[in-house]
Input
Amino acid sequence: MTAPALRWAGVAKRFDGVVALDGVSLDVPAGQFVALVGPSGSGKSTLLRTANRLVEPESGRIELDGADVAVEPAPLLRRRIGYVFQEIGLFPHLSVAENIVLPARVAGRSAPDVAELLALVDLPAEVAPRRPDALSGGQRQRVGVARALSTGARLMLMDEPFGALDPVTRDALATAVRALHDRLGLTTVMVTHDMAEALLLADRVVVLAKGRIVADAAPATLLAGEAGAEAAALVAVPRAQAERLAAMARA
Ligand SMILES: Nc1ncnc2c1ncn2[C@@H]1O[C@H](COP(=O)(O)OP(=O)(O)OP(=O)(O)O)[C@@H](O)[C@H]1O
Output
C-alpha cells in the first residue's frame, strides 16, 4: 500500500493555553480533494498550517509522502506544497508574471512557463505584465493558484481561497480549481466556511469542532444525515436554503 500523500497523527497545538488542535489524526490519500469545515475557531486553519509548518505543533507528527515534515528545512518543504489563502499575498509592486515566477526564483530553479500557468487557470496571457491591482479579485485569486502551482507542487493547501469573492466568481473559480485538481492529479485540502461548497466540490468532508474531528465522510453520507449531529447541523443550513428557494420557484 502506498503512503497517504498527507498524514496528521495525533497533532496537538495550544496558543497561550487555548486548545486549537486536540490530537488530530487524518490520512489524505494521493489524489483526494478534502474539504475542512467547522465553526469559527475550530482549528481548521491551524491544522492546514501545520502541514507547511507555518504553525509548529507541540505534539504529534505530520508526514508528506511518508516523510516527517519536521525533518526537511521549511523552505524546501514549502516548494512541494502549494498554499492559497484568502488575502492571496501577491506583491503589489511586481507584475503578475513576476509574482508567479517568484517562488521558483527564490528556490533557485529555472523560471516556470508563465503563459502555460496562466492558461491553466484560464487567464489570458495579456495579464502577465499587469500589476495585481489592475486585476479583479477573481483574477487575483487565479494568479494565486498559478503561483501555487509554479514550483510543480502536487499538494495544494487552500484556506478560504474564494472567501472574498462574489458568489458567481466564487462558484466559477471553485469549479475551475476542482477541474485543475482532477486534470493535474493533485491532492487538495481546502478550508471553507461554506458547507454547500464543501459538499459540491470535495470527495470527502472533514468536520472540526473544538480542535477535534467530529465527522469525516463523503458528501452523500453527510447529506443523508449519517455523519453525526455536528455534521447534520452544518448540512441543515444549505439544505433549508435550497428548499426555500425551490418553494419560491414553485410559487
Ligand atoms: N497565532 C495565533 N495566536 C493565538 N491564538 C491563535 C492563533 N492562531 C489561532 N489561534 C486560536 O486557535 C483556535 C483555532 O483557530 P483557527 O484559526 O485554526 O480556527 P478556524 O477554524 O480556522 O477559524 P476561522 O473559521 O474563524 O478561520 C482559535 O481559538 C484561535 O483564536
